[in-house]
Amino acid sequence: MDSHYRRSSVSSHHFFPHDRHYDEPEAPPPGPSRLKPGAQLTMMRFLQDLPDAEAPPTDVTPRYHTGRLPNSKAGDGKPRLLLMGQRRSGKSSISSVVFHKLPPSETLYLETTTRIKKESMHSFMDFQVWDFPGHLDYFDPAFDVDNIFEEIGALIWVIDAQDEYLEAIMRLNTTILNLQHSYPNINVEVFVHKVDGLSEDYKGDTFRDIIQRVQDELSDHGYENAPVSFYQTSIYDHSIFEAFSKVIQKLIPQLPTLEALLNSLCSTCKIEKAYLFDIMSKIYIATDTSPTDIGSYEICSDYIDVVIDVSEIYGWDRPAENGNAEVVENGNNDAESLITMEKKGNNYLYLREINKYLALICLMGDDSPAEKKAVVDYNVGVFQDALKQVFPRAERDLPVIQTS
Ligand SMILES: Nc1nc2c(ncn2[C@@H]2O[C@H](COP(=O)(O)OP(=O)(O)OP(=O)(O)O)[C@@H](O)[C@H]2O)c(=O)[nH]1
């Protein structure tokens, strides 16, 4: 592999699946750690040293993202993604493939969901994913509707495009109309799912038909501009990650800032396309505003897989003390720094670990990038510093030490 790796000083594990954990929101205290003793010691130091370690001195109230929803009644405000839809439409499969890395073919053996399955995701921002059983009537008086919908970030409605979908659309419309009264700002994201098994023509027709039926119903009830978006998805390709990326991006208030930073990086370094990836889920949380095509997303996402695989093999426990650890000039303080540059066909791929959750991947053209690398390194360092101010939490958050 024609790549260049550089690793810097100390602390957390990176590009390791265990850095992330999913649990029930009200889970009991952490169980035994899966990390090796050395790594646990490092974490203990994190726990002791971390508060405000990198907070810039300022009189201005910070306006960066806190992971809280502005109107959250409970105040603990982790945005919630609700996965709803008919039985066997693919809700649990989506959640397992995107957040648990389950190989798509193994979703065949998933059992039907019988009660609401709640999972917390701790990453660059905290959010929860609630997987609903297909048969539930959420507006039954037995359910506490407010409890379900009040802190919602997005309602993802999954429709099986390979199946008869009229009833699914009817339920979706009823749900949207019910919600419009009390929660008019909820983002409704319709995943027209399992499109992998359909011919191009049929796929397009089905997609248009579903959009038309939903929009007609809404406008019949006077909701012309309800916030409803549609995506074609499948767990057997990248489309589900692409769709989830767009859903999550709507929950990130600093998205315009991130896009502006990426635009500026791209124009300074003549980068064709830059993605800021959440490493483990392979959701991209921002990209520059040049047109996106699924091809470039696929290349970058596959590259993350390679890096994770290599890190699984060659990753190492950080030394407990500063010791002889190599220091990289752009200083990735509490993150292992990994920088690679690789030629892929006519393109160069540049990857840099930004912090323990995020990686920047850039696609560059063929115009002598080897000489450009120093300039790119420098500018990405500047981008990284800017990002720290936008997402200070990702820099300072405690490493997660257990998986339930
Ligand atoms: N072809 C295809 N099959 C899929 C896709 N996603 C899920 N499936 C299959 O659909 C079936 C049902 O998936 P589940 O995830 O259990 O569906 P669910 O909506 O959670 O079902 P309930 O728990 O009963 O509500 C499984 O056999 C999956 O393998 C997809 O993108 N394409």
Automatic annotation (TrEMBL):
It comes from Aaosphaeria arxii CBS 175.79. The lineage of its organism: Eukaryota, Fungi, Dikarya, Ascomycota, Pezizomycotina. It catalyses: GTP + H2O = GDP + phosphate + H(+). It is found in: Endomembrane system. SUPFAM superfamilies: P-loop containing nucleoside triphosphate hydrolases (SSF52540). CDD domains: RagC_like. GO terms for biological process: cellular response to starvation; negative regulation of autophagy; positive regulation of TORC1 signaling. This is GTP-binding protein. Keywords: GTP-binding, Hydrolase, Membrane, Nucleotide-binding.
